[in-house]
């Protein structure tokens, strides 16, 4: 049933596993949002997590980042069992996530929003300011440092969310629908940014995204969730040909 192919960029057994989810399950009352979900995230890859609305993608992010505990199953990050660890503990270990809906401090400047995101490792205000400037430059915000976050155009607010996450110096960056509401040119720029985050900063990316063309273009491997369960996984080519995947998406378009 399941198409499991290892991509050339991530041959199983050769690359280090950063995050391992084993039989993750999360119930909300009678609803099972995530069920028996197992996957591995390899060092240096861009792994896509896709699925129709309500498939359990954001819940998966909430589970792996410690925002909510799983009903059952295990999570191992950098060799440590983080299953019931706090969100603070997990973020300090280097797993940083963004939210589907931006959670910016609207009444604070772009600069202050990024400074607040900086890692605790940076002790001096000067070091935090330098990190803030680097991340603002990378995300195209260097000319907007004094603007209130809430007054930024939507596209730049999305970039600010990413700048804040990068300021924490993640090992793994989990992006929840970062392209929503972006225009064509902005989408292309964001994809270039993701590539740069991976290649120049050495950060591994887990990407939840509805924009299929973008996902197919940028991801090394893709996991497909449907009703909380893993429907297929493999290279973009393999999952886009998978009959179960096609059926799940067409089924939801009706
Ligand atoms: N805190 C919650 N309480 C109750 N139900 C929830 C909660 N969070 C998510 N759900 C439900 O879990 C399912 C999966 O949601 P979600 O993970 O947000 O899906 P996706 O991000 O793939 O669109 C949906 O049916 C949603 O309504
Ligand atoms: Mg979601």
Structural Rg = 18 Å
Report the β-strand fraction as a percent range: 15-25%
Counting DSSP E segments of at least 2 residues, the number of strands comes to 10
Number of domains: 2
Highest CATH level, the class of the largest domain: Alpha Beta
Order of helices and strands: EEEHEEHEHHHEHEHEEHH
Poorly predicted parts:
1-8
Q: What's the CATH superfamily of the largest domain, by name?
A: P-loop containing nucleotide triphosphate hydrolases
State the end-to-end distance: 24 Å
Key traits:
single chain, Rossmann fold, 4-stranded antiparallel sheet, binds adenosine-5'-diphosphate, 9 helices, 254 residues, 10 strands, disordered N terminus, 2 domains, binds magnesium ion, alpha/beta
Describe this structure in words.
- It contains nine helices and ten strands.
- The longest helix is centred in the last third of the chain and has 16 residues, at 184-199.
- The chain has 254 residues and is an alpha/beta fold.
- The protein folds into two domains: 1-94 and 170-254, P-loop containing nucleotide triphosphate hydrolases (Rossmann fold, 3-Layer(aba) Sandwich); 104-169, no CATH class.
- The protein has helices at 57-64, 87-93, 110-117, 125-138, 154-167, 184-199, 212-218, 236-241, 243-253, and strands at residues 17-28, 31-42, 46-50, 72-77, 80-81, 95-97, 172-176, 204-208, 221-226, 229-234.
- Helix 3 packs parallel to helix 5 and helix 4 packs across helix 5 (154-167).
- The strands form two sheets. Strands 6-7-8-3-9-10 form a six-stranded mixed β-sheet, sandwiched between helices. A four-stranded antiparallel β-sheet has the order 2-1-4-5, covered by helices on one side.
- Adenosine-5'-diphosphate binds next to strand 2 and helix 1.
